[in-house]
């Protein structure tokens, strides 16, 4: 569950620049003495799974390098409403000016981790892994994918650069599945995995005649999905079968029971609700 620390500083700086602008926190700076210090707790107000504490720490430390930030729980821990998750001591201006940015990060990442944990729990006992997609907040993809891991899920590709996924529009533009796969095989490096998206059994049969590592079975009804998985495994033992399209918490168990290896759910990141978390002096 490695955290993307190499992206931390520029992400925090961009968020603080957005909020503080050229003049800084004109409300806090007018009210609070520059040397005033305070203590505060970050409190979770609903049950959930924690993620994103390093983002909050870096936010406050950017405003007060000597600030004390003591987490009570580890990342990925499930906590109950009312729990104090961090105790902070530092300059009052830093606490007030960094509060919203820090909470935005924790709430967003914890919301993703919480929803992921629910999906993972729903498929427990099957062989299916829950994975995220590229449907992430611009600029926050690495952190949101980290939050998925904190919730017990796994990551699909990070971007267009680390794996090949031939989708329906690629197939249409190339003139067919075989043509698209052939072009990729001629240009991709030997370490690059190739996955192709199919919508029907007929498309699956064509893909299985080609050199592919995985098939994405998109928007298939449960009976068709079950048949597609069995067909793919029989034709190419070891091939990965991924289900995608309209995956919801209410349907994910039935999808997992078809025998798929991976279930990708864009809803883990693109429409998840933030966890209710606050900062109390």
Descriptive keywords:
281 residues; alpha/beta; TIM Barrel; 2 domains; 12 strands
Globally, the shape reads: elongated
- Largest sheet data: 6 strands, parallel
Strands, count: 12
Q: Helix- and strand-based class? A: alpha/beta
N- to C-terminal separation?
Answer: 31 Å
CATH topology type of the largest domain? TIM Barrel
Structural features, described:
The protein is of the alpha/beta class and 281 residues long. It folds into two domains: 5-116 and 273-280, Alpha-Beta Complex (Aldehyde Oxidoreductase, domain 3); 121-270, TIM Barrel. Helices cover 43% and strands 19% of the residues. The chain has eleven helices and twelve strands. The chain has helices at 8-20, 26-31, 53-63, 92-122, 141-150, 168-174, 177-187, 201-208, 222-235, 252-256, 267-270; strands at 37-44, 48-49, 68-71, 78-79, 84-91, 129-131, 164-166, 194-198, 214-218, 240-244, 262-264, 277-280. Helix 9 links the parallel strand 9 and strand 10 (240-244). The longest helix is centred in the middle third of the chain and has 31 residues, at 92-122.
